[in-house]
Amino acid sequence: FDGLRADVTLGAAKVSLLAVKPVQARKGGFNDRTSPEKSLWGAYAAMPGLDLYYLGYRNAAARWGTREGTETRHSLGARWHGSRNDWHWNVEGVYQFGRFADGPISAWTLGSELGRAFPDAPLAPDLTVRLNVVSGDSKRNDNRLGTFNALFPKGKYFGELSPVGPYNIVNAYSSLGLQLAPDLSASLAAMAYWRYSREDGLYDIPGNLIRNAGDSRAKFVGKEVEATLAWQATAELELSASLSAFAPGPFIEQTGSDKTIHMLGLESNFRF
Protein backbone atom coordinates (compact mmCIF):
# COMPACT_ATOMS: atom_id res chain seq x y z
CA PHE A 1 0.00 0.00 0.00
CA ASP A 2 1.01 3.62 -0.65
CA GLY A 3 -0.42 6.21 1.69
CA LEU A 4 -0.42 7.59 5.21
CA ARG A 5 -0.93 6.06 8.64
CA ALA A 6 -0.86 7.71 12.07
CA ASP A 7 -0.94 5.90 15.42
CA VAL A 8 -2.35 7.79 18.38
CA THR A 9 -2.46 6.60 22.00
CA LEU A 10 -5.58 7.61 23.93
CA GLY A 11 -5.45 6.17 27.44
CA ALA A 12 -5.53 2.38 27.10
CA ALA A 13 -6.49 2.57 23.41
CA LYS A 14 -4.16 2.69 20.42
CA VAL A 15 -5.93 4.29 17.47
CA SER A 16 -4.60 3.87 13.93
CA LEU A 17 -5.78 6.34 11.27
CA LEU A 18 -5.06 5.41 7.67
CA ALA A 19 -5.62 6.51 4.08
CA VAL A 20 -3.94 4.27 1.49
CA LYS A 21 -4.10 2.83 -2.02
CA PRO A 22 -2.99 -0.71 -2.90
CA VAL A 23 0.05 -1.18 -5.13
CA GLN A 24 -0.40 -3.33 -8.24
CA ALA A 25 2.51 -5.65 -9.05
CA ARG A 26 3.44 -5.78 -12.76
CA LYS A 27 5.95 -7.76 -14.80
CA GLY A 28 9.45 -6.36 -14.83
CA GLY A 29 11.40 -4.41 -12.24
CA PHE A 30 10.73 -1.04 -10.61
CA ASN A 31 7.47 -0.48 -12.46
CA ASP A 32 4.80 -1.35 -9.87
CA ARG A 33 2.18 1.37 -9.59
CA THR A 34 -0.38 2.69 -7.16
CA SER A 35 -3.85 1.46 -8.07
CA PRO A 36 -5.89 4.10 -9.90
CA GLU A 37 -9.16 2.30 -9.05
CA LYS A 38 -8.93 1.21 -5.40
CA SER A 39 -8.54 3.12 -2.14
CA LEU A 40 -8.90 2.32 1.57
CA TRP A 41 -9.32 4.62 4.56
CA GLY A 42 -10.48 4.34 8.14
CA ALA A 43 -9.73 4.16 11.86
CA TYR A 44 -8.89 1.14 14.05
CA ALA A 45 -8.98 1.33 17.87
CA ALA A 46 -7.25 -1.48 19.78
CA MET A 47 -8.04 -1.78 23.49
CA PRO A 48 -7.40 -4.56 26.03
CA GLY A 49 -9.62 -7.43 24.86
CA LEU A 50 -11.65 -5.32 22.42
CA ASP A 51 -11.06 -3.78 18.98
CA LEU A 52 -13.42 -1.34 17.26
CA TYR A 53 -12.96 -0.10 13.70
CA TYR A 54 -14.36 1.64 10.65
CA LEU A 55 -12.99 1.01 7.15
CA GLY A 56 -14.01 2.77 3.97
CA TYR A 57 -13.30 1.23 0.56
CA ARG A 58 -13.77 2.34 -3.02
CA ASN A 59 -13.21 0.38 -6.23
CA ALA A 60 -14.02 2.13 -9.50
CA ALA A 61 -13.79 -1.17 -11.44
CA ALA A 62 -15.57 -3.66 -9.18
CA ARG A 63 -17.21 -6.84 -10.42
CA TRP A 64 -19.70 -8.98 -8.50
CA GLY A 65 -21.32 -11.83 -10.41
CA THR A 66 -22.26 -10.50 -13.84
CA ARG A 67 -22.47 -6.86 -12.72
CA GLU A 68 -19.73 -4.25 -12.97
CA GLY A 69 -19.45 -0.72 -11.63
CA THR A 70 -18.13 1.52 -8.88
CA GLU A 71 -18.22 0.05 -5.38
CA THR A 72 -18.17 2.30 -2.31
CA ARG A 73 -18.38 0.22 0.86
CA HIS A 74 -18.25 1.12 4.56
CA SER A 75 -17.40 -1.50 7.22
CA LEU A 76 -18.17 -1.23 10.94
CA GLY A 77 -16.49 -3.96 12.98
CA ALA A 78 -15.85 -5.16 16.52
CA ARG A 79 -13.54 -7.90 17.81
CA TRP A 80 -13.63 -9.43 21.31
CA HIS A 81 -10.64 -11.60 22.18
CA GLY A 82 -8.71 -12.87 25.17
CA SER A 83 -7.66 -15.83 27.33
CA ARG A 84 -8.31 -16.99 30.88
CA ASN A 85 -7.55 -20.20 32.79
CA ASP A 86 -6.34 -22.08 29.67
CA TRP A 87 -9.37 -20.96 27.65
CA HIS A 88 -8.94 -18.62 24.69
CA TRP A 89 -11.50 -16.94 22.46
CA ASN A 90 -11.83 -14.62 19.48
CA VAL A 91 -15.16 -13.29 18.19
CA GLU A 92 -15.48 -10.72 15.40
CA GLY A 93 -18.45 -9.19 13.62
CA VAL A 94 -18.64 -6.75 10.70
CA TYR A 95 -21.55 -4.98 9.02
CA GLN A 96 -21.09 -3.39 5.59
CA PHE A 97 -23.18 -0.80 3.76
CA GLY A 98 -22.75 1.48 0.76
CA ARG A 99 -23.46 1.32 -2.96
CA PHE A 100 -22.41 -0.81 -5.92
CA ALA A 101 -23.26 0.15 -9.50
CA ASP A 102 -26.88 1.31 -9.31
CA GLY A 103 -27.90 -0.32 -6.02
CA PRO A 104 -27.31 -0.48 -2.25
CA ILE A 105 -24.99 -2.80 -0.31
CA SER A 106 -26.00 -4.63 2.86
CA ALA A 107 -23.63 -7.43 3.95
CA TRP A 108 -22.19 -8.90 7.14
CA THR A 109 -19.98 -11.54 8.69
CA LEU A 110 -19.61 -13.16 12.12
CA GLY A 111 -16.57 -15.25 13.04
CA SER A 112 -16.09 -17.11 16.31
CA GLU A 113 -13.27 -19.15 17.85
CA LEU A 114 -13.16 -20.97 21.19
CA GLY A 115 -10.21 -23.01 22.40
CA ARG A 116 -9.01 -24.92 25.43
CA ALA A 117 -5.36 -25.67 26.18
CA PHE A 118 -4.11 -28.50 28.39
CA PRO A 119 -0.55 -27.40 29.20
CA ASP A 120 0.06 -30.09 31.85
CA ALA A 121 -1.09 -33.03 29.69
CA PRO A 122 1.36 -35.03 27.51
CA LEU A 123 2.15 -33.07 24.29
CA ALA A 124 0.22 -30.07 25.71
CA PRO A 125 -2.82 -30.47 23.44
CA ASP A 126 -4.85 -27.43 22.40
CA LEU A 127 -8.39 -27.95 21.09
CA THR A 128 -9.98 -25.23 18.97
CA VAL A 129 -13.39 -24.92 17.29
CA ARG A 130 -14.54 -22.16 14.94
CA LEU A 131 -17.78 -21.19 13.25
CA ASN A 132 -17.74 -18.51 10.55
CA VAL A 133 -20.73 -17.11 8.66
CA VAL A 134 -20.18 -14.76 5.69
CA SER A 135 -23.16 -13.32 3.86
CA GLY A 136 -23.89 -13.77 0.17
CA ASP A 137 -26.27 -12.19 -2.32
CA SER A 138 -29.84 -13.35 -1.66
CA LYS A 139 -31.36 -12.31 -5.01
CA ARG A 140 -29.54 -12.46 -8.32
CA ASN A 141 -31.95 -10.32 -10.31
CA ASP A 142 -32.26 -7.23 -8.11
CA ASN A 143 -29.81 -4.34 -7.76
CA ARG A 144 -29.12 -4.95 -4.05
CA LEU A 145 -25.74 -6.57 -3.22
CA GLY A 146 -25.54 -8.83 -0.15
CA THR A 147 -22.11 -10.41 -0.75
CA PHE A 148 -19.60 -9.55 1.97
CA ASN A 149 -16.29 -8.09 0.79
CA ALA A 150 -13.24 -9.21 2.80
CA LEU A 151 -11.35 -6.30 1.18
CA PHE A 152 -7.71 -7.50 1.16
CA PRO A 153 -7.56 -11.04 2.61
CA LYS A 154 -4.04 -12.42 2.86
CA GLY A 155 -4.96 -16.11 2.77
CA LYS A 156 -5.06 -18.71 5.56
CA TYR A 157 -8.63 -17.62 6.19
CA PHE A 158 -10.01 -21.06 7.04
CA GLY A 159 -6.72 -22.89 7.62
CA GLU A 160 -3.22 -23.10 6.21
CA LEU A 161 -4.47 -24.26 2.79
CA SER A 162 -7.94 -23.73 1.36
CA PRO A 163 -9.36 -23.16 -2.14
CA VAL A 164 -12.43 -21.40 -0.69
CA GLY A 165 -12.60 -17.67 0.05
CA PRO A 166 -14.54 -15.70 2.71
CA TYR A 167 -17.58 -14.79 0.61
CA ASN A 168 -21.06 -16.36 0.74
CA ILE A 169 -19.83 -19.14 2.98
CA VAL A 170 -20.56 -20.93 6.25
CA ASN A 171 -17.53 -22.69 7.67
CA ALA A 172 -17.17 -25.08 10.61
CA TYR A 173 -13.63 -25.86 11.82
CA SER A 174 -12.02 -27.99 14.51
CA SER A 175 -8.34 -28.59 15.22
CA LEU A 176 -5.98 -30.31 17.64
CA GLY A 177 -2.57 -28.78 18.24
CA LEU A 178 0.30 -30.76 19.80
CA GLN A 179 3.72 -29.73 21.11
CA LEU A 180 5.93 -32.64 20.02
CA ALA A 181 9.13 -31.03 21.32
CA PRO A 182 10.12 -27.60 22.63
CA ASP A 183 10.84 -26.47 19.05
CA LEU A 184 8.46 -28.76 17.11
CA SER A 185 4.66 -28.47 16.92
CA ALA A 186 1.96 -30.22 14.89
CA SER A 187 -1.74 -29.81 14.24
CA LEU A 188 -4.56 -31.76 12.62
CA ALA A 189 -7.69 -29.93 11.44
CA ALA A 190 -11.02 -30.78 9.81
CA MET A 191 -13.41 -28.31 8.22
CA ALA A 192 -16.62 -28.16 6.20
CA TYR A 193 -18.12 -25.51 3.92
CA TRP A 194 -21.66 -24.54 2.93
CA ARG A 195 -22.96 -21.71 0.77
CA TYR A 196 -24.74 -19.07 2.84
CA SER A 197 -27.14 -18.18 -0.01
CA ARG A 198 -28.36 -20.49 -2.77
CA GLU A 199 -28.59 -17.49 -5.11
CA ASP A 200 -24.86 -16.69 -4.87
CA GLY A 201 -21.86 -18.69 -6.06
CA LEU A 202 -18.47 -19.74 -4.71
CA TYR A 203 -15.42 -17.45 -4.58
CA ASP A 204 -11.68 -17.88 -4.17
CA ILE A 205 -9.64 -16.02 -1.53
CA PRO A 206 -9.05 -12.81 -3.58
CA GLY A 207 -12.80 -12.62 -4.31
CA ASN A 208 -13.02 -14.00 -7.86
CA LEU A 209 -16.19 -15.95 -8.67
CA ILE A 210 -15.03 -19.51 -9.39
CA ARG A 211 -18.43 -21.29 -9.44
CA ASN A 212 -21.63 -19.60 -10.52
CA ALA A 213 -24.75 -20.58 -8.59
CA GLY A 214 -26.34 -21.86 -11.81
CA ASP A 215 -29.44 -23.96 -11.20
CA SER A 216 -28.00 -25.82 -8.22
CA ARG A 217 -29.98 -25.65 -4.99
CA ALA A 218 -27.32 -27.56 -3.02
CA LYS A 219 -25.63 -25.69 -0.19
CA PHE A 220 -22.90 -28.13 0.85
CA VAL A 221 -19.64 -27.16 -0.89
CA GLY A 222 -17.19 -29.71 0.50
CA LYS A 223 -15.06 -30.93 3.38
CA GLU A 224 -11.34 -30.72 4.06
CA VAL A 225 -8.67 -32.26 6.27
CA GLU A 226 -5.30 -30.71 6.95
CA ALA A 227 -2.07 -31.60 8.77
CA THR A 228 0.67 -29.11 9.65
CA LEU A 229 4.18 -29.48 11.07
CA ALA A 230 6.20 -26.48 12.26
CA TRP A 231 9.83 -26.36 13.41
CA GLN A 232 11.35 -23.36 15.20
CA ALA A 233 14.85 -23.93 13.87
CA THR A 234 16.35 -20.84 15.54
CA ALA A 235 15.02 -17.88 17.46
CA GLU A 236 14.54 -16.13 14.10
CA LEU A 237 13.80 -18.95 11.62
CA GLU A 238 10.63 -21.04 11.46
CA LEU A 239 10.01 -23.77 8.85
CA SER A 240 6.60 -25.34 8.30
CA ALA A 241 4.85 -27.78 5.98
CA SER A 242 1.12 -28.31 5.41
CA LEU A 243 -0.73 -31.08 3.58
CA SER A 244 -4.42 -30.76 2.77
CA ALA A 245 -7.17 -32.56 0.84
CA PHE A 246 -10.45 -30.94 -0.21
CA ALA A 247 -13.30 -33.32 -1.16
CA PRO A 248 -16.16 -31.74 -3.19
CA GLY A 249 -19.78 -31.75 -2.06
CA PRO A 250 -23.05 -31.68 -4.04
CA PHE A 251 -22.76 -28.01 -5.10
CA ILE A 252 -19.35 -28.61 -6.72
CA GLU A 253 -20.54 -31.87 -8.28
CA GLN A 254 -23.59 -30.19 -9.83
CA THR A 255 -21.75 -27.18 -11.31
CA GLY A 256 -18.60 -28.53 -12.99
CA SER A 257 -15.38 -30.43 -12.34
CA ASP A 258 -15.55 -32.30 -9.04
CA LYS A 259 -12.17 -33.89 -8.42
CA THR A 260 -10.61 -33.96 -4.96
CA ILE A 261 -7.97 -31.23 -4.57
CA HIS A 262 -4.66 -32.09 -2.89
CA MET A 263 -2.50 -29.21 -1.67
CA LEU A 264 1.03 -28.99 -0.27
CA GLY A 265 2.41 -25.86 1.35
CA LEU A 266 6.03 -25.19 2.37
CA GLU A 267 6.83 -22.01 4.25
CA SER A 268 9.79 -20.31 5.89
CA ASN A 269 9.65 -17.24 8.12
CA PHE A 270 12.68 -15.25 9.24
CA ARG A 271 12.03 -12.60 11.88
CA PHE A 272 14.64 -10.36 13.44
What features would you describe in this structure?
This protein is an all-beta fold. Helices cover 2% and strands 62% of the residues. The chain has one helix and 17 strands. The strands form three sheets. Strands 1-2-5-6-7-8-9-10-11-12-15-16-17 form a 13-stranded antiparallel β-sheet. A two-stranded antiparallel ribbon has the order 3-4. Strands 13-14 form a two-stranded antiparallel sheet. It is globular and about 60 Å long. The model has no long low-confidence stretch (mean pLDDT 95).
Uncertain residue segments: none
Order of strands side by side in the largest beta sheet?
1-2-5-6-7-8-9-10-11-12-15-16-17
Number of strands: 17
* Helix content class: under 10%
Tertiary shape: globular
- The ordered H/E elements are EEEEEEEEEEEEEEEEHE
Beta fraction:
over 45%
Q: How many helices does DSSP assign?
A: 1
Structural class, from secondary structure content?
Answer: mainly beta
Q: For the CA atoms, what is the radius of gyration? A: 20 Å
How would a textbook summarize the main sheet? 13 strands, antiparallel
